[in-house]
Amino acid sequence: MRRTAQGFTLIELIIVITIIGILAAVALPRFINAQQDARIAKAQALFGSVRSAAALARSRCELDLAGGAAVGATCTTTAGTANMDGTAITMVNRYPAATAAGIIAATQIDTTNDGVTVAVGPPLTITINGATTAANCRISYTAATAVLAPVITLDTSGC
């Protein structure tokens, strides 16, 4: 009885390996860009959250100043606290301070679970973990002054 050989020939194996290599070369850059796009989207979402939290805290402070102070709120035109969802937010010039008890508490950022690192400045910076250039993948928050609203900037050039 004669047995026939089973399996791939050397040429078939070389062709399959070449095709896999070409597919990997095409797919890998797209995968890397997907990670970059995800970090940019996270930075943009956090930027929106910081802007919204600052505006909401300002509104709460204005309500306090108008006589509708929440329990425990002491917001004044220059300092104090505003109560947002049961959390005392440290305020400076009617906006959240650039501290953990200020804008970070107002946005409810969790550095452990949100994949970010917070550095209290000035300015306070929220850096996206895993960025190519961490210094260029961040949100910066500079506290309000007596004449200017807080300055909130977004840099995604290094994400």
Characterize the structure shown.
- Its main location: membrane.
- By secondary structure, this protein is α+β, with helices and mostly antiparallel strands.
- It has one domain (11-155).
- The chain contains 2 helices and 7 strands.
- It has helices at 10-65, 100-107; strands spanning 81-84, 87-92, 95-96, 116-119, 124-128, 138-142, 151-155.
- β6 and β7 form a beta hairpin.
- α1 (10-65) crosses α2 (100-107).
- The longest helix has 56 residues, at 10-65.
- The model has no long low-confidence stretch (mean pLDDT 87).
Summarize this, please?
The protein has two helices and seven strands. By secondary structure, it is α+β, with helices and mostly antiparallel strands. The strands form two sheets. The chain has a four-stranded antiparallel sheet, with helices on one face. The chain has a three-stranded antiparallel sheet with strand order 1-2-3.
Structural features:
alpha+beta, 159 residues, three-stranded antiparallel sheet
Reconstruct the topology from this structure:
Blueprint: H1 10-65, E1 81-84, E2 87-92, E3 95-96, H2 100-107, E4 116-119, E5 124-128, E6 138-142, E7 151-155
Antiparallel strand pairs: 1-2, 2-3, 4-5, 5-6, 6-7
Helix pairs in contact: 1-2
Transmembrane segments: 7-28
InterPro entries: N_methyl_site (IPR012902), Pilin-like (IPR045584)
Membrane topology: Single-pass membrane protein
